[in-house]
Amino acid sequence: MTNALRPLLLCDLTQSYAPHGGGGIGTYLREKRRYILDHTPHRLLQIVPGPEDRIVEDGRHIWAEVGAEQVRGSPNYRFIMRTGVVRDVLERYRPDLIESQCPWVLPWTAIHYAKAFPETALVAGYHTDFPEAHIYRVGSSLFGSFVASGLRRLATGYAQLTYREFDRVYTLSTVMARALDEYGIGHVDVLALGVDTKLFHPQRRDPAWRDSLGLTARGPLLVYAGRLDNEKRAYRLLEMFKRLPSSLDAGLVLIGDGKLREMLEEHSRGWQVAFPGYIADRAQLARAMASADIYVSAMADETFGISVIEAQASGLPIVGVASGAMPERVPEGTGVLVPVDDSTAMAQAVVALWRGPYRQMGQAARSHVAGRFEWRQTFEALLGEVYPKALVAAQARMEKGRSGWNGPGILSNRDLIRQASR
Description:
Rossmann fold, eight-stranded mixed beta sheet, six-stranded parallel beta sheet, disordered N terminus
């Protein structure tokens, strides 16, 4: 086992990174880097897809891009198929722990690497219940529910084979933890993601922001931030908006990019809808959130909802759907949840909220998030609970022949990473 008396080299490995238009994974990688470098002695290796092979070492941080082709229909994303290059990077740096953050191809690169270097601990982030969200829902729309059910069974089998190989799995909601339990995967922790509540704050509200977008509506300003694609059901938001009464004089801002953007722009011509694109500057995004009135989302398979808690931290109530992790993110008194794909019900919820206690709900949303969903808490749990369990399991593999052995090395690993993360 790696010497527990020295700082560790931790590794993030993911397909789900995009430098522009990216979502939660990009935010997670950025915030994790900041926490590791500012609050621990560890080093961090982050391996992501890019236009070409590139490694940048900056002190204790190593950024490795593996050249990959763009994903058709999602040009901001790339998909790594050159797993040999990933393996070369892993063998060059020899991480003590690998955290895999997506389900396709790369988890098995990490698994095969750990078989060659069994002292390496493996952690998987199960960010999406992909047999349901990616396979069944997409398959149903393309081939019908019968074929989609068969594809889901195959995907479930793949998930079972894959995630049983990891020393520890974390998921982002109790809903997904229950799904994994049904798959027979029990070594699971629930990890809450975070938000910078000092950055995302109601005080960043700027009345001039609406005008800067060219909107003349003076009623409620609705905002959404995320990918503009089918998975996020961004088209439902435009359907909802068109069902609002004209007397409401509402405006809608769709922040983000994606394959549906051109279609949505075309269908919103003449309406009070703005498309500012992906906002990379976090301060500008915080200003945008705080300058709106209600956050809206039609996402049926929300895994956690970083943009939701960013909106809540900004003092916005939520109108969303009663599915996925959304019921956990939006407790009673902080917003309204409606059935999936019911644009009429969503429009009615917006009207009722605007004409009712939307300010009080926004304040309650802020109170719900502040002090409960901070990035510091996320990474304290990751490094203080999830990682130590993985390190214990990895050491158990190394000590497999010693029946009943419970030496001090296991405790020292747990204590080391807890102390180092303070």
